[in-house]
Amino acid sequence: MDELRSAPPGAAGLSSDEAARRLELHGPNKVPEEPRTPVRRRVLQQLRDPLILVLLAAAVLTIATGDLTDAAVILLVITVNTVVGVVQEVRAEAAVTALSALSAPAARVVRDGAERSVPAAEVVPGDLVLVGEGDIVPADGDIQAAASLMVDESSLTGESVPVEKADGGDTSPCAVSAGTVVVRGRGRVVVTATGAGSALGRIAALMGAAPGPTPLQHRLARFGRMLAAVIVVLCAVVLALGLVRGQPVELMIVAAISLAVAAVPESLPAVVTLALALGARRMAERQAIVRRLPGVETLGSVTVIATDKTGTLTEGRMAAERLWTPHGEATVLGTGYEPEGRVLRDGETVTPGDAPDLAALLEGAMLCNDAALEPPSDRSAEWRALGDPTEAALLAAGARLGLDRRVLDGEMARVEEVPFDSGRKRMTTVHRRPEGGLRVVCKGAPESVLRPETLADGAELLGRAAAQAEVLARSGYRVLAVASADLGDPAERPRTWESGLSLLGLVGILDPPRSASQATIAACKRAGIVPVLITGDHPLTARAVAGRLGITSRDEELTTGERIREGTAGDLTGVRVYARTTPEQKLDIVQAWRGAGHVVAMTGDGVNDGPALRQADIGVAMGERGTEVARQAADLVLADDNPATIVSAVEEGRRVYANVRRFLLYGLAGGTAEILVMLLGPFLGMPLPLLPAQILWINLLTHGLPGVALGAEPVAPGTMRHPPRPPEESVLGAGLWPRILLMGAFVAAVTLVAGVWARETGRPWQTMMFLVLGATQLGVALGSRARPGSLANPFLLVAVGTALCLQVAGVYLPPLQALLGTEPLPLTDLAIAAAVSGLGHVVMRLQAWLLPERPPRAAVTSRTGGR
User: Fold this and answer.
1) Per-residue pLDDT tens over the stretch 593-647
2) Taking a C-beta distance cutoff of 8 angstroms, is the pair 148, 2 a contact?
């Protein structure tokens, strides 16, 4: 390997005093961290929810009327909702902090003329930094000297192939960026920017403010405002009717306030929080950390998933997958850099003895190679590449054929080499053969190797090889050509080793898609979600990956960052693949989809994905391979980097939304029934159908445990076979309003009929109405189950049973009789009331069968061209 060029003046680096002065001037070499949100602010954010504000107003009214019991219940619901939300956010932040690690915990710098190790945060502009294989570049800088330096810049650019870096001299210095990884060689770098001024810092600054409310929060806010207005009007009507009929003013005011409290589904925040918390817990069991609790539901509303390629849909490591020799083709199977796997030719596994041409090709690729494979250790549970990932992929492919690198190196020791450089685009090594003589092996880009000056093969073979290289390149592969020649011992070193060689074959290398990626994309499309690919990689690579995964198969559905910059890309929502994009353009693409009315999820792992992750409706970051910037920008962090978890998260989100609607159907139907009873009762000869205390007791039992238990209902069958809900759809849309009115009218009718019958037969009609109204609503709760007849949610069965017992206790226990104004009923009347209330379950199941909830329209996907 070439030695580093002699360093120019300044090679002694900064003095310690000067470094300290610059550190004070420029600040530490850290990307500005997002300040931690104080607990008090988290609490206030929870309390600003519109429904919580309605409940706080209801609590104040109930306290004003002296109903401290119901006020305590309302305040308890508010407290539980707030505590659960805050605790989840704090836990998620702690989990992400545990995943986080400094991008470059230490750096080697030259200070006072001597090399020393300092914390990366203390690197300052002007420092002379030494980098070598495996180091993370601590800051932006210009390369002062380099020897075979190659850097992985995928976290910044999305380009999966490492980039060669060389000293360009004073006129055109070559630069490196903070957060990139040296995969081969070494170099001296003069730091030009640190912290917020580095490329990493500038990208992090694009993230801006946190995203706004989630789709569910928007829908519930609209619902809360509408409900508050309706309740005020109806309570005014009830108050007026009572006063017209001569009821005492104080009693009617209390009744109107009680009816307002009854009409408010005060358990809704608890239902939402429970459903979100259960979703977050299920996600945690699948190695997904929910950083913001509402993010669970947001995934259920997603209409577009925009995903990065490198490290997200792909493994983030190179694999030699296709082999071609003049005698035929073959495919290499295996995972990561693990040497286990096999090579297939014509569908059959082959060995070196079966396919000597493949053996010669991979032997050459393993000899002309500076990388190594590291087996699993405490540092990593998987095989790792030491050196250039492309060369490591060649070693893994040779091992999968059955070749042993150690045997090859032992038999044919390297005696000379011509290192790779960007001008020649090839590398050549010379080895001593066991039987005597030398073997020359050359590998490099096809356009550099497939030349008459290098190869002694005929024009026909060179033409075939060039055509095959083009086919592989159009399929997204990075293609390497390998050639060799056996020589006798030359009397003196030839002028060039790179001539008169024979072509061994071609190797197609790429960053392969993760095993779960294709199934993930297919599941998203079945669920009516439009997948799009946004990458900084080459258009051919992006198109090939998109085609493999089923994102798109049409060339016209691809555009590039250059076209976006020039303004010739047209409608950004009209394509499915975006290649060669910058972080700013990723942000533009996400905002374009959101501006078109879509709910967008963005997945990524690199620094370049951070701004888009933050601005999307929900950001999903990879936890293991992901950068700190990506993790901090995301709402959901996949600790195991498994994209299949995204589909599970979407299902959890849809379950949350379905359970919110399930509770609203149940709770608002009950509230509607209570309002109708209070409105229509006087016209049937019952001046005050229910006392305020009776209304509040029914509301406490029905909206309490049973209502909250509905939030734990399992996902309904077929949930992932429907498109997502249109973002503009109301939480009561898709036919929910008619079902609420139908069930409310039915429960009110049953209650009023029972009351009229009891009054006409001389029974305590008000107690009968009290019992029937509460019990019938509990029957509706049982009929609201997602999977009736199963034990999928035993909590609901227990809650309904407990509430029913308390409802009966309100009729027979003397202390409760005095509190509620009830009278004991004969057992026959109790049985009649129980039988009548059972109709609530029957009618609920019947209307679910006759009036099934309309599945979401497919307009979202058709509008965007999704297929």
Assistant:
1) 988 889 899 988 776 777 788 888 888 888 776 666 677 678 888 877 788 888 8
2) yes
| 418 residue type, one letter | V
CATH code given to domain 319-510: 3.40.1110.10
Q: How far is CA 506 from CA 131, 352, 362, 364, 722, in A?
A: 33, 17, 10, 11, 45
3-state helix, strand, coil in the chain (%, to 5): 50, 20, 30
**Four-point Cα dihedral 756, 757, 763, 767, nearest 10:** -60
Nearest of 786, 762, 772, 779 to residue 833 by alpha carbon: 772
CB 800 within 8 A of CB 706: yes
C-beta atoms surrounding 738 within 10 Å = 11
Q: Which residue has the tokens 């702690």?
A: 94
Identify which of 695, 696, 702, 666 has the alpha carbon closest to the alpha carbon of residue 681. Answer: 695
Asked: is 267-281+653-867 a CATH 2.60.40.1180 domain? The reply is no
Residue with tokens 């996902």: 715
Q: Sorting pLDDT into bands at 50, 70 and 90, what band is 2?
A: very low
Cα 636 from chain centre: 5
- Tell me, what amino acid is at 444? G
Question: How is residue 763 written in tokens?
Answer: 């029974």
Buried b (16+ CB within 10 A) or exposed e, 627-639: bbbbbbbbbbbbb
**pTM of the model as a whole:** 0.69
Amino acid making up residue 141: G
Instruction: Report the 10 Å Cβ neighbour count for 306.
Output: 26
Q: How, if at all, do strands 600-604 and 577-579 pair?
A: unpaired
3-class SS letters over 773-790:
HHHHHHHHHHHCCCCCCC
- Calculate the CA 398 to chain-centre distance: 36
| Tally of CB atoms within 10 A around 358 | 28
Gap between the Cα atoms of 257 and 71, Å rounded:
12
Spatial neighbors of 214 by CB under 8 A, at least 6 apart, are: 294, 295, 297, 298, 301, 617, 618
Report domain 299-314+515-641's class.
alpha beta
Q: What's the rounded Cα separation, in Å, for the pair 317 and 732?
A: 47
Domain ranges of the chain: 267-281+653-867, 299-314+515-641, 319-510
Phi and psi (nearest 5°) for 829? -65, -35
Q: What is the three-class DSSP state of 734? A: coil
* Angle between helix 268-285 and helix 215-244 axes, rounded to 10 deg: 160
**Residues 6+ positions from 423 with CB-CB distance below 8 Å:** none
* Block residue for tokens 């009290």: 770
The pLDDT value given to residue 677:
87
Give yes or no for a contact between 421 and 166, defined as CB atoms under 8 angstroms apart.
Answer: yes
Shortest CA distance to 627 belongs to which of 307, 153, 281? 153
CA 595 – CA 590 distance, rounded (Å): 9
Report whether pLDDT(297) > 50.
yes
- Span 679-735, pLDDT tens digits: 788 778 787 788 777 887 887 788 777 877 888 888 888 888 888 877 777 777 777
Assess contact for 703 and 667: CB atoms under 8 A: yes
Which residue numbers are catalytic?
A: 308
Given a contact cutoff of 8 angstroms between Cβ atoms, the answer to whether 301 and 724 are in contact is: yes
Kindly give the residue spans of alpha helices, DSSP state H, lying in 142-267.
Answer: 154-157, 199-205, 215-244, 249-263
Residues with Cβ < 8 Å from 608, sequence gap 6 or more? 155, 156, 157, 158, 203, 536, 582, 583, 586
CA-to-CA distance for 641 and 639, rounded, in angstroms? Answer: 6
How far apart CA 600 and CA 619 sit, in angstroms, is 9
Strands 426-432 and 414-421: antiparallel
Structure token pair of residue 212: 């706004």
d(CA 277, CA 193): 43
For residue 57, the Cα-to-chain-centroid distance in whole angstroms is: 37
Environment class of residue 260 by beta-carbon count within 10 Å: exposed (0-12), middle (13-18) or buried (19+)? buried
